[in-house]
Structures are given as C-alpha cells and as structure tokens.
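Page 47, continued from p. 46.
Same chain as before, 130 aa.
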Amino acid sequence: MSKKLQLHLLEETFALSKLPQFAEIPVTLMKGDMCFIFRTEEELSVISPEFMAPTNVQQEIGWRCIRVDGESQLKDANIVLSMAMPLASANIPMLTVTTFNSVLFFFQEEHVVEAVKALQQAGHEFTHKE
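Result:
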C-alpha cells in the first residue's frame, strides 16, 4: 500500500548543470536559494534555480520540483516509492533528492500536468503556498 502524501509544486524552474569533477563551487550557489551540489569521481553536478545556474557549462534547464510536505521523512522509505511508482508508470523521467527534512522530485517542465495528474490519481494531494 502506498503512502498518501501532501505535496507542493514549487514555482521556480531549475537547471541541472554539469561541471568538471574538481571545479570550484560557484560562490552564488553558496549564498542563494535552494540548490544541491553532488560530486562524483566523474563530475560536479548542481541543481539550482535557473537564475543562479552556472554559465558556460553543460546544462539542462526547465526542471520543475514537487516537494513532499510534512515533518522529517529521512527514515520513511515508503515516501520515495509512493511518488516514484506513479511517475514511473506515467513514463515521467525524474530525479529525486532527499535531505534530512525534505523529499524532492525534479522532472522536466513539459511533464508538469502529467506528473500532477499521476500523483493525484495515486491518492496524493497538492497544497498551494503563498
């Protein structure tokens, strides 16, 4: 049985940027809004609001984000599954980020309507925040 969640579609559009593995982290990312920085043995990847995205790097723009509302979900394995299954069934490619307090799903803006519909059909509810 999948878990029913309260979700929030963020207004911002995000960019997914790829920098060289040992690149310096741009200073704007250290002082800005919500951003995520991942370093692997091959690259430095950054998810940031489009207006903060590094320039002159490999990049995909037009990503949207749905955030799971509520208390810390770090230890609840069913949250990711209950969102990923309906999105995967609707053939929507996604990127998931989990922090101590948040679970976020990123997908291309062209899939917003399909994603919301798939998640609502799975029993999840969307809230609007000012």
